[in-house]
Amino acid sequence: MYVAPHRSQLTQDHVALVEIDLAGELMIAAATSPEDRLSPDRIDEVLDVDADRDVREAAAGAEQSSATARRL
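Now predict its structure.
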């Protein structure tokens, strides 16, 4: 019989914590919305999708510039 080792109480799953926070933000937005459902645009606004996209694009651009510089 396999028994999983005891995990320290200090261990945190940071990805899970972020997902829980985002789910909470969506629930708050849904609860305060006068409509039946949140529109896709409203969901993107609540989750700040544009800001995440900007950060990913900036990181990709910096990585590409770095790779180009290394080749030269």
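The longest helix spans residues 49-71.
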